[in-house]
Automatic annotation (TrEMBL):
GO biological process: deoxyribonucleotide biosynthetic process
Keyword Transmembrane: no
Keyword Oxidoreductase: yes
Record's catalysed reaction(s): a 2'-deoxyribonucleoside 5'-diphosphate + [thioredoxin]-disulfide + H2O = a ribonucleoside 5'-diphosphate + [thioredoxin]-dithiol
One term under GO cellular component: ribonucleoside-diphosphate reductase complex
Keywords: Allosteric enzyme, ATP-binding, Deoxyribonucleotide synthesis, Disulfide bond, Nucleotide-binding, Oxidoreductase
MF GO annotations: ATP binding; ribonucleoside-diphosphate reductase activity, thioredoxin disulfide as acceptor
Residues annotated as domain Ribonucleotide reductase N-terminal: 16-97
The protein's role, per its UniProt record: Provides the precursors necessary for DNA synthesis. Catalyzes the biosynthesis of deoxyribonucleotides from the corresponding ribonucleotides. R1E contains the binding sites for both substrates and allosteric effectors and carries out the actual reduction of the ribonucleotide.
Name of this protein: Ribonucleoside-diphosphate reductase
UniProt similarity note: Belongs to the ribonucleoside diphosphate reductase large chain family.
Species classification: Bacteria, Pseudomonadati, Pseudomonadota, Gammaproteobacteria, Enterobacterales
C-alpha cells in the first residue's frame, strides 16, 4: 500500500502545472477539484522550490551569510538582539503556514522571495519574508514585530507589493506603491515632471501626473498667440520616461495623467486612446483619467453647451492654478468673464465621446471632483487621483527657479498601502489589535520613506504621514457566510465593517499622535480638529439592520462602536490630534491577494 501511494505521488508531482489546470475540470460528481490544486502546491514546493533553495545549517549561519553577501540590510537586524531575531524566525516557521493555492505559491516564488543575484536560487520561504518585513516595519519594537508577523502569517494583514518585496533587503526599491504629482504651467515644472517620472519609476511605483494646469494647444506664450503645443507632447514625454525606467527589472514603469473635463484639450486628450489615432498623438501605455465636476452633469442634463476654460487665463485672472479653482462653484462667473478665453462643446457630445473611448480602450478613469471634495475633511482641494484611482488627497504647487531648484517646495503625494483580508480579519482573535497593528505597520512605511530625488514627494509625505489601509476578499467572506452580493445583508455588513474599521483606525492614529506629540500638518484647519467630522457618527443608528449581520459581529466578538465611544474619540482627537492625514483607501490587490 505504501509503495502504491508513493508511486501515485511521484506521478502527480511530475507536473504541478497540469495538476493546477485540473481546477478547470469537474470530478465525476460535478465538483471543482480543489484537492488537485493543493497537490499542485505540494508538487511545486517538492520538485521545484526545495531543489532550488540555498540551505544553511542554522538560522544564525543563514543571517550572517545573507548580511555578508549583501542580501539583507544589517541595520534592520541590528535594531534587535540577535536572540530575539532568531526566536522570531523560529516562531514564524512553526506557525503552520501553508499556501492555500498553487497560484499563491507560484506568485510568491516568482515575484516576492529573495533570490541569489543570478536569479536561479531561492534564499527565503514565505515565513522568512514575513519575518524580515515585520522586523523592518517594527523598527526595533519587539512587540510590534511579533504582532506584525502573526497578522501576516494568519493572512489578516498583507502589505502592498513594494513593501512586501523590498523590506529588509540591502539592494531594494522604495516601500511605496505609487505617487501623485502636480505639473504647473511652466517649462521648469514640466522638466521636473519628466525627471520625477524617471526617478520614481526607477524606485518602483506607479506615478500619476496632473495636467489640468497646462495651457491648451494654441494658447499664447509670452503674449504671442498660437504658440503652446498643449498637453499631448507632455504626455508623450512622460510615456517615454515610464517605458525607459523600471525597478531593477522587477516592476515595469507605469504612469497615469489626469485632465479636467473643462480643459480645452479634453477631446484631443481622449482621442489619444483611439485605436486608429495618428501615431504622433497616440498614447499606448499611459493611463488616462478625467476629472469631472457636478456642473458637467447638470449641463448634460439640460442638453446645454459646456465651456472649456483656458488654464492660462484662469491662473492669470484668479491668481491660482486652474486645478485649484472649484469649477462648479465659479462656472457662471468664469463664463461671464471676458478676460478668460473659452471654447464650447455640447455636454452630451462630451459624454458620448468619453463613452466611445472607454468602450475602445477601457480609459479614462473618472474622478468626480465635487463628490470627493465634499467628503474631504482636510483643508485644501483634491484635484486628481492615481494610477489605480483609489487615492484622493490634497496637494499643493511647487515653484522653481531657472536651474530647476525649488524656490517653494509644494506637497505631492505618496501611497503607503496595505490591506486587511476581510474574511480573516472577521476571524481575528482580537479585531482591535489587528487594525491597530496594520495602521502602525503602514505608518512605519510612511516614516521610513524619504524620496529625496523628488523633494515635493518627500515634503508631502513628511507633512501628511498619510497611509491607505485597504480591504480585500469581501466577496469571499460573503460567499462563505451564504450572503448574496448586493443583498440587504451584504450592504448592511459592508457598511458596519467599514464603520468599525474607521473607529479603530482613527483611534490608533490618535494614540500615535499622543505618543509622539505630533499631528499631521494642517490638523488644526481640518474637520477633525473642530470635531465636525464626528457628527456623522454621533447621529443616526449605527447598528445592524439585519439579524444575520448582527449574528456575524456577535460571533466574531466584535463590539461595534457606540455613540459614547465616538464622543470619547472625538474629545481625544480634539485634544491630541491624529498622526495620519489619511488612513483608508481600497487599492487593487491583484498580486498580494
Amino acid at each position: 500500500m505504501a509503495t502504491t501511494t508513493a508511486e501515485c505521488l511521484t506521478q502527480e508531482t511530475m507536473d504541478y502545472h497540469a495538476l493546477n489546470a485540473m481546477l478547470n475540470l469537474y470530478d465525476s460528481a460535478g465538483r471543482i477539484q480543489f484537492d488537485k490544486d493543493r497537490q499542485a502546491v505540494d508538487a511545486f514546493i517538492a520538485t521545484h522550490v526545495r531543489p532550488n533553495s540555498v540551505t544553511f545549517s542554522s538560522q544564525q549561519q543563514r543571517l550572517n551569510w545573507l548580511v555578508n553577501e549583501g542580501y539583507y540590510d544589517e541595520s534592520v537586524l541590528n535594531r534587535y538582539s540577535r536572540d530575539f531575531v532568531i526566536t522570531l524566525f523560529a516562531h514564524a516557521h512553526t506557525s503552520g503556514f501553508r499556501f492555500q493555492t498553487f497560484l499563491g505559491a507560484w506568485k510568491f516564488y516568482t515575484s516576492y522571495t529573495l533570490k541569489t543575484f543570478d536569479g536561479k536560487r531561492y534564499l527565503e520561504d514565505f515565513a522568512d519574508r514575513v519575518t524580515m518585513v515585520a522586523l523592518t516595519l517594527a523598527q526595533g519594537d519587539e512587540t510590534l514585530a511579533l504582532q506584525l508577523t502573526d497578522e501576516m502569517l494568519s493572512g489578516r494583514f498583507q502589505p502592498a507589493t513594494p513593501t512586501f518585496l523590498n523590506c529588509g533587503k540591502q539592494q531594494r526599491g522604495e516601500l511605496v506603491s505609487c505617487f501623485l504629482l502636480r505639473i504647473e504651467d511652466n517649462m521648469e515644472s514640466i522638466g521636473r515632471a519628466v525627471n520625477s517620472a524617471l526617478q520614481l519609476s526607477k524606485r518602483g511605483g506607479g506615478v500619476a501626473f496632473l495636467l489640468s494646469n497646462l495651457r491648451e494647444a494654441g494658447a499664447p506664450i509670452k503674449r504671442i498667440e498660437n504658440q503652446s503645443s498643449g498637453v499631448i507632447p507632455v504626455m508623450k514625454m512622460l510615456e517615454d520616461a515610464f517605458s525607459y525606467a523600471n525597478q531593477l527589472g522587477a516592476r515595469q514603469g507605469a504612469g497615469a495623467v489626469y485632465l479636467h473635463a473643462h480643459h480645452p484639450d479634453i477631446l484631443r486628450f481622449l482621442d489619444t486612446k483611439r485605436e486608429n489615432a495618428d501615431e504622433k498623438i497616440r498614447i499606448k501605455t499611459l493611463s488616462l483619467g478625467v476629472v469631472i465636476p457636478d456642473i458637467t452633469f447638470h449641463l448634460a442634463k439640460e442638453n446645454a453647451q459646456m465651456a472649456l476654460f483656458s488654464p492660462y487665463d484662469v491662473e492669470r485672472v484668479y491668481g491660482k492654478p486652474f486645478a485649484d479653482v472649484a469649477i462648479s462653484q465659479h462656472y457662471d462667473e468664469l463664463v461671464a468673464d471676458e478676460r478668460i478665453r473659452k471654447k464650447y462643446l455640447n455636454a452630451r457630445d462630451f459624454f458620448q465621446r468619453l463613452a466611445e473611448i472607454q468602450f475602445e480602450s477601457g480609459y479614462p478613469y473618472i474622478m468626480y471632483e465635487d463628490t470627493v471634495n465634499r467628503a474631504n475633511p482636510i483643508a485644501g482641494r483634491i484635484n486628481m487621483s492615481n494610477l489605480c484611482s483609489e487615492i484622493l488627497q490634497v496637494n499643493s504647487a511647487s515653484e522653481y527657479d531657472e536651474n530647476l531648484d525649488y524656490t517653494r517646495t509644494g506637497h505631492d503625494i505618496s501611497c503607503n498601502l496595505g490591506s486587511l483580508n476581510i474574511a480573516h480579519t472577521m476571524d481575528s482573535p482580537d479585531f482591535a489589535r489587528t487594525v491597530e497593528t496594520a495602521v502602525r505597520g503602514l505608518t512605519a512605511v510612511s516614516d521610513m520613506s524619504h524620496i529625496r530625488s523628488v523633494p515635493s514627494i518627500e515634503a508631502g509625505n513628511a507633512a501628511s504621514h498619510a497611509i491607505g489601509l485597504g480591504q480585500m476578499n469581501l466577496h469571499g467572506y460573503l460567499a462563505r457566510e451564504g450572503i448574496a452580493y448586493g443583498s440587504p445583508e451584504a450592504l448592511d455588513f459592508t457598511n458596519l465593517y467599514f464603520y468599525a474599521i474607521t473607529w479603530h483606525a482613527l483611534r490608533t492614529s490618535m494614540l500615535l499622535a499622543r505618543e509622539r506629540g505630533e499631528t499631521f500638518a494642517g490638523f488644526k484647519q481640518s474637520r477633525y480638529a473642530s470635531g465636525e467630522y464626528f457628527s456623522q457618527y454621533l447621529q443616526g443608528n449605527w447598528q445592524p439592520k439585519t439579524a444575520k449581520v448582527g449574528e456575524l459581529f456577535t460571533r466574531s466578538g466584535i463590539t461595534l462602536p457606540t455613540r459614547e465611544m465616538w464622543a470619547q474619540l472625538r474629545d481625544d482627537v480634539m485634544r491630541y490630534g491624529i498622526y495620519n492625514q489619511n488612513l483608508q483607501t481600497v487599492p487593487p490587490t491583484g498580486s498580494i491577494s
